[in-house]
Amino acid sequence: MDLLALPASTTAVVDLAVGQRVVEKGGFFDWLRAACAVRGLSCEVLDESVVEEAHRAIREGRLQIRTLLDLSAAWWNHEDPYVQLCYAVKDSGGRVIDDPDAAMMADHKAVSHHRLQQAGIPVPPTVLIRRWEPDRGLTSQEREVVGEQVVIKPARGWGWKGVVLGSRGDLESVARARDFDRTDDYLVQRQVPFTTLPDDHGVHRPTWWRVFYLFGEIIPCWWNPQNGDYWLLSLRELWTHELLPLARLAAEIARISKMDFFSTEICLADEAAVPDTPYQAHGRQFYVIDYVNDQCDIRCQSQHAAGPPDEVVRHLAERFADLAWRQRHGLPLDGHRSLWLRRAPDVDPTV
To answer: How far apart are CA 244 and CA 92, in angstroms?
Structure first.
């Protein structure tokens, strides 16, 4: 479809559009187009060259997008063309994944921190420094809360940009971290220690997971915060290491944030948990580290070493096509709660 030459006399309809600034060949987008073609759906990727014209065509009634998957909106910049595109689709009756109002709130880590903490979700002890506050180090009382080693992160940051690890939280360190973006709030959080656990093949992996959530489906992956390495979790690993709280936490975050598609990072601390507190495994406490990432990394591992496993990315493409098909036919999108795990060998008698 030539979005730059839509006639004024008719309204073109796109079943599934993807807001993506720069589009790579292969991987997710090829799988998505193929999945849409099998279902008889139209699919368009709106890169930087066409996004403004698509927005204009929606406003003028020349284009209708039934489902928009947003992977690009800079939520706190109202002049961003992808933010405006999301609201144009929503205002014209289409579905946006994720809903722009929910995504804007979830995108702000300080907002998410308070919402999750008040709902009983285990988050790291945190001190918030607002954008209007002068530079300062941690007080002795704040130091008691967060400990001697902290992480400093911008509230609107993404992809670990602007994140400082292993800081002492002194005046100089905080000021230097805030230089990344002086218009943002900052979270100063206790740096949670983690250890390793063996996977099914005996490989010791960090007790850190990136969990995808998509309309009730939960996809937990081992994830290495030091190099971005993914490994899809198996049923045996889930059972052996008492990791069902990963699914419970992802489902609760979805309920609280009203988000339909996101990823979250969850760590199992290398320290004893307080007795009788929820979300534990083997006497250690789970913490939600990175709360709600609404624009998930969909670069497949075969093309990018730090991308999710190809099987996960391809599955996401299939699910988005299925959701767009259901939207087109007026069927409900939120299905049953389910876990999507690594397949065990057929000869494995234990699962």
So the answer is: 40
Q: Which of 247, 278, 292 is nearest to 116 (CA)?
A: 292
Among the candidates 97, 113, 144, a domain finishes at 97
Check which CATH number belongs to the domain holding 174 and give it: 3.30.1490.20
Measured N-to-C along each axis, helices 100-107 and 245-257 cross at an angle, to the nearest 10 degrees, of 120
Residue-number span of the structural domain to which 257 is assigned: 196-339
Peptide bond into 101 cis (omega under 30): no
Residue 131 burial (CB count, 10 A): 14
Q: In the prediction, which pLDDT does 7 show? A: 62
The Cα–Cα gap between 225 and 196 comes to 12
Angle formed at CA 263 by CA 216 and CA 162, multiple of 5 degrees: 160
pLDDT at 329: 95
Phi, psi dihedrals of residue 97, rounded to the nearest 5°: -110, 105
C-alpha 255/C-alpha 121 separation (Å) is 12
CA atoms within 13 A on the CB side of 326: 13
pLDDT tens for residues 307-323? Answer: 999 999 999 999 999 99
- In this prediction, residue 262 carries a pLDDT of 96
The C-alpha atoms of residue 125 and residue 118 are separated, in whole angstroms, by 13
The alpha carbon dihedral of 182, 186, 192, 194 has a sign of negative
Among 144-148, 164-168, 236-240, 330-334, name the one with the lowest average pLDDT.
330-334
Contact (Cβ atoms closer than 8 angstroms) between residue 17 and residue 44: yes
pLDDT score of 349:
62
- Type of residue numbered 317: A
Together in a domain, 186 and 200: no
The verdict on 182 and 76 lying in the same domain is no
Judged by phi (left if over 0) then psi (alpha if -120 to 50, else beta), residue 162 lies in left
Kindly list the distances between the CA atom of residue 292 and the CA atoms of 25, 211, 219, 326, 332, in Å, as whole numbers in the listed order: 27, 10, 14, 25, 24
User: What pTM did the predictor assign?
Assistant: 0.94
Please tell me the predicted confidence (pLDDT) of residue 25: 85
- Intra-chain end-to-end CA distance of the chain, in Å: 47
- Considering the domain architecture, whether residues 228 and 329 belong to the same structural domain is answered as yes
Q: How do residues 81-111 score in pLDDT, each as one tens digit?
A: 999 999 999 999 999 999 999 999 999 999 9
